[in-house]
Amino acid sequence: MTDVATWAARLDDAATGTAPIAPLSGDGLTDLAVAYEVQRGVVGLRLGRGERLVGGKLGLTSRAKQIAMGVDRPLYGLVTSGMARNSGSLLLLEELIHPRVEPEIAFVLGEPLEGPGVTVADVLAATRYVCPALDVIDSRYEGFRFTHLDAIADNASSAVFALGDDLVEPRGDLALTGCVLEVDGRVVESAAGAAVMGHPAAAVAYMANQLVATDRRLEAGWVVLSGGLTAPVPLLPGSTVTATLSGLGSVTLGAE
């Protein structure tokens, strides 16, 4: 079996060189713990280039997506300072492979969260702000085809994220928060917060509890992207994507 460091370097080279690779599952990746080790290696290479760890992100948080992938659990990744963009930023698509974008509810933590046993109530109590987010996913695998373990190793397809400018203290029932996704002013998707594990804070709790296996926790000041509220849409040249969440404001990214 190929060693973890080699797999991590292969994924990092694919990202930095915008050259997709064959899935690692075809090269012997068959273990969940090893997939997360590869992920940590990928993130470590980014940190070695001077980036900072600024939070986490969830994937496969909807039951429909899990069924489509043939899995019964979400996955998580880590996000770094080099992935962050301001709302209204213009992305250069030549720096990405096959980007897709999805709207999310982001949690900015005021206190750390450490499992096991973290609940939705714990997440809400530890959250300083929530805001709309756009998460640009960009699998490093050829043809955007991969297994659950491949996606974990690829750091949950992390590429770029942007947060809305309005930071709102969590209030009301975020499961009922409405979301509208527009491309060039045309509504293409809509959903509610409950699309993410019944409540978006449940996804944050899931990550906090899973991190126990690696002796880590979600830190104060981190942003956690709770998972796609809708199906991802391709990010195309010249397009502008806007996510508007009821009571939370909006966030926009453009592409060229």
From TrEMBL:
Q: What organism does the UniProt record list as the source?
A: Pseudonocardia benzenivorans
**Domain Fumarylacetoacetase-like C-terminal stretches:** 99-251
Q: Lyase as a keyword?
A: yes
Its keywords, alphabetically, are: Lyase
UniProt name for this protein? 2-keto-4-pentenoate hydratase
Lineage, top-rank taxon, reads: Bacteria
